[in-house]
Design brief:
Chain lengths: 236, 293
Amino acid sequence: MSLLEVSDLEAGYGPVTVLRGISFSVDEGRIVTVLGPNGAGKTTTLRALSGTIRRSGTIRFDGEDVSRHTPEKLARRSVAHVPEGRGTFTGLTVEENLRVGAFPRRDKQGVAEDMRHCFRYFPRLEERRAQHAGEMSGGEQQMLAIARALMLRPRLMLLDEPSLGLAPKLTRELFKILERIAREDGVTMLLVEQNANLVLQFADDAHVLEAGRIVLSGTAKEMQADEGIRRSYLGV
Amino acid sequence: MERFIQVLVDGWATGSLYGALAVAVVLIYRATGIVNFAQGELAMFSTFIAWGLMQAGLPLGLAIAGTLGLSFLGGMLIERLVIRPVEGGEVLTLVIVTLGLYVLVNSLAGWIWGFGNRAFPSVFGDGSFHVAGAAVAVESVGIVAVLIALVLGLYAVFQRTKVGLAMRAVSFNPDSSRLVGISVGRTLMIGWGIAALVGALAGALIAPRLFLDVNFMGGVLIYSFAAATLGGFDSPFGAVLGGWIVGIAENLAGTYVDFIGSDLKILVPLAVILVVLLFRPTGLFGSPEVARA
């Protein structure tokens, strides 16, 4: 069954419409990526889903209509959005960032357990738990942003360009961890990326956006294999 | 020597009062980036409510406690009704709105309670004791103690509670706060409520030293801005320390510098604001962002 079902989603900023009616679905447990050139509407898609911008259309999450949910309400439904540019709380310490990530939760025990769980994925964060997020490197902040999202114990994670500004080696490591989170913790992922070549190695399904419309959908394997698709849509 | 101790303790107590109102100003600035010019008037209004409750027969302590609660609710209401519609707007818009609130609250108080002045009793009574030959008012020591307790209490709320964590998160990054499930509007309402409560406490402590009338907080607000500026404008601790420095400096200058006397004492906070902004715009404890904004 689909965890997320999107139909005729339109969204934009002020008078400008960026997404021109897209429909797709994300099955539970899958890693789904949205690819496309700059300005195609990738980031806009995630923002529309989490409700931080003007939107219309239907969004169903786990069978429930969440088309009009505010971002905070959606977060309480266990949808975690890691925004572009990470969105960590720079003035809070690493540990406080993680605690604030678990804000809607009441189960103290579970939160403490999940924090240890995050530190297993990102030992670096445990070393820096008392440090302010703003003092950390870009890679560490990206790890923190993902760990913070995990603290929500999400069923769906929306990730906006996790590779942005990271060295290739670090990006690869990060994707391996994301894959473990998806497979071991059963977190469904919707991932926006510029780096199509890399993300197609990890993703199950892919959608290609162009000028606010989905022009191509399929499994990651098919897309990787098809020379024509890669040349015309992905520029690789 | 006795005189010096008296002047010092008195200045310290006065400075604590400036510090208390400065803390209220700083709390709102930290949470929203708004400098609330109406903070003093809100405190004045709260103090009138306390006075009104006493007229209705409540004992002083109960009247003040009730006023603190009412002020908390009032602060939340003001955020929701007056500030929310302009939130995130231009700085000039926000300044004008809080100045408008200043005039509104001032006039409203005059309309309800009139423009005469009234005596307001001190919770600490008018006793005194002797230290090294100098008479020290119990009230002075009480004020300083209340302020220290207040700041420690606020520190505990911000550092140890979930609401406090949410308030700090919102002040750093409102967008990300929503993404982790924090209701930004509700959090800001609580922030305004706490600031109004702190202001009400300041008003109830200041009124006995002056007279209660609709303009009694006007001068105090200037001293508080000096304290907040000196402290860096986004640090409650800085605001308190700034208040102490301004209060003591003002009293020493008023007593020992002949040409200043009690008439020109108001120059002290203005000089402090000017000097801090010229030479150290981040104050003693401010974050650098404050200087850039």
